[in-house]
Design goal:
The protein is of the alpha+beta class. It is 12% helix and 31% strand. The strands form three sheets. A five-stranded mixed beta barrel has the order 4-5-6-10-7. The radius of gyration is 28 Å and the shape is globular.
């Protein structure tokens, strides 16, 4: 029986195109992964580094009203002595949330270089930021908008805030530099110039 099927395949002109079509359908349906799927990096934008905002709780009908002092309900809450200057102080800032699903992924991200160390014209550590001037002339963006990049081979820098694409393995490990805090770390495999 097998011999007759092989003979039929050799003589049937549609056998090969049908086999190719069946393989394409299997790849498209996800049953078979294409060979180059693991090689292609995930192309990110800066907005993909920020997790979605949590839903806002419903507004209360008493929202915005000043709570009353339980000892003196006719007056607004009294301020303890010596605390009137500290009433508006905000709570300590919490780190900006990161997208945990990006941990360990091979990615490509475009941005601007803020060097952290120099060796002649080469840089092995730098911050990748979304806009020119970040961390230098203006307050730094939130940590989930700064990526700490380590390039083992080094990278030749022509100017500050050079536009580049960085490809490599990303982790959600925060990095604390003297310039700014980064929410992500990227081990660079390659760094390519980017046209603006």
């Amino acid at each position: 029986m097998t011999g007759r099927m092989n003979a039929h395949r050799r003589t049937c002109p549609m056998a090969r195109p049908l086999a190719l079509l069946a393989a394409a359908v299997a790849i498209a349906s996800g049953h078979i992964a294409p060979v180059n799927a693991q090689d292609a990096p995930l192309k990110l934008t800066w907005s993909s580094l920020m997790p979605p905002a949590p839903p806002k709780p419903p507004r209360s009908i008493v929202a915005g009203r000043t709570p009353l002092d339980p000892l003196n309900p006719t007056h607004e809450r009294s301020v303890p002595e010596g605390r009137w200057l500290t009433g508006g102080r905000s709570t300590p800032s919490t780190p900006a949330p990161v997208v945990e699903a990006l941990n360990g992924k091979r990615v490509q991200l475009g941005g601007y270089v803020v060097p952290l160390d120099f060796e002649a014209n080469g840089v092995k550590e730098f911050l990748l930021v979304p806009f020119v001037g970040a961390c230098i002339h203006v307050p730094p963006p939130p940590a989930n908008q700064i990526v700490y990049v380590q390039a083992a081979k080094g990278f030749e820098v022509k100017s500050l805030f050079e536009p580049v694409y960085v490809t490599g393995r990303m982790t959600t490990t925060p990095s604390f530099t003297g310039l700014a805090d980064a929410g992500y770390t990227l081990e660079a495999e390659r760094i390519d110039p980017r046209k603006e």
